Amino acid sequence: MSQVRKSFLILFALTITIVSISYLIASCRKVQNTNHLHLLSQEIPAGFPQPLYRFEDNPITREGFELGRKLFYDGRLSIDDLHPCSSCHQQIAAFGTYEHDRSHGVYNSHTLRNAPVLFNLAWSPVLHWDGEFTSLKDEAAQPINGHIEMGESFEGVIKKIQDDPDYLNLFKQVFGYPFIRPEFILKALAQFTDYMISSDSKYDRYKKGTATFTTQEENGYQLFKTNCAICHTEPMFTDYSIRNIGLPVDTFLKDYGRMRITGKKEDSLKFKVPSLRNVYISSNYMHDGRFNTLAQCINHYRTGVQQSPTLDPILIQGITLTNSQATDLSVFLRTLTDSAFLIDPRFSKPL
């Protein structure tokens, strides 16, 4: 066979291969495009600022949301099959841990901290008590892999759910890929948790002019604006900063907060300022759940602030309140409860 003919045949074979690959890719794309996902708009309540996270890399769809919801309540994401995300993030407590100090994990373990509430997450520049994470997807991976939380690996999770036809259909529908991958699990969870918006409390209706405060609630609101709003800024009721509020370190837990992440002594005892929305029903309080009641929290600022080199300067003198004023402030904080959010069937366990 001549060299020219050999070259022609090689070129012809390469052409056929390239065309075949292009056809397969086009076919795959065509299959994905027939999935007709129902896009959901990211909710931005009236009066809220623009969220920091807009999901450009993970468009929210009804199907992706439902997949995330299914995963959130599935115990198979934990190594003992008994500790889903919802075991620590309970709807009755605004997706915190209901009336408990610190979260319980697999094999009767007790975690280091109180589970933070899950709502309005797309507005937060940092996540977790020490600000370790800046991404919704990254922060969801930590408890799944954490040895005293859910204790599982993504390989283990996928092995347990890959034979579930509902999961296979949902993952393929949402992500257009025939296999379950770790990043798909995290993206689905992010879609579900991001859609948890809390913005319909009595306070919100008061600001819209559709509800009125009692005298005690109004007095408490004025006290709040004078004494608390610098850190717990409206309307999110947090400025998302990381501060030392004068809590003495627990000698057993030895949790020094942000310093655990940065290694810097100037970050000692600094923790993220939590939102006060739904605070009345999200006990226990503080990073380690040391306080059972709002009254105990308020009294800490009145008489319990511990001086230290990293104490936030605005708390050096504490907060001066009479007993009556402390009660009024507590009554105002109850107006931040979004009762509809606590029973919203969209966020409940799938039937």
Question: What portion of the residues fall into strands of 2 or more residues?
Answer: under 5%
**E-strand count:** 2
User: Low-confidence spans: pLDDT under 50, at least 5 residues?
Assistant: 1-34
**Secondary structure: helix percent:** 25-40%
Please provide the ordered H/E string of secondary-structure elements. HHHHHHHHEHEHHH
Find the CATH topology of the largest domain.
Cytochrome Bc1 Complex, Chain D, domain 2
Structural summary, described in words:
- With 351 residues, the protein is mainly alpha-helical.
- It has two domains: 62-198 and 341-347, Cytochrome c-like domain (Cytochrome Bc1 Complex, Chain D, domain 2, Orthogonal Bundle), CATH 1.10.760; 202-338, Cytochrome Bc1 Complex, Chain D, domain 2 (Orthogonal Bundle), CATH 1.10.760.10.
- The chain is built from twelve helices and two strands, in the order ααααααααβαβααα.
- The chain has helices spanning 3-33, 62-72, 136-145, 154-161, 165-175, 182-194, 202-208, 215-227, 259-262, 294-304, 323-334, 339-343; strands spanning 242-243, 271-272.
- Helix 2 crosses helix 6 (182-194), helix 3 packs across helix 6 and helix 8 (215-227) crosses helix 11.
- The chain is globular.
Quick take:
With 351 residues, the chain is mostly helical. The protein has 12 helices and 2 strands; from the N terminus they run ααααααααβαβααα.
Search tags:
mainly alpha, 2 strands, Cytochrome Bc1 Complex, Chain D, domain 2, single chain, 351 residues, globular
Outline the fold blueprint:
Layout (H helix, E strand, L loop, with lengths): L2 H31 L28 H11 L63 H10 L8 H8 L3 H11 L6 H13 L7 H7 L6 H13 L14 E2 L15 H4 L8 E2 L21 H11 L18 H12 L4 H5 L8
Antiparallel strand pairs: 1-2
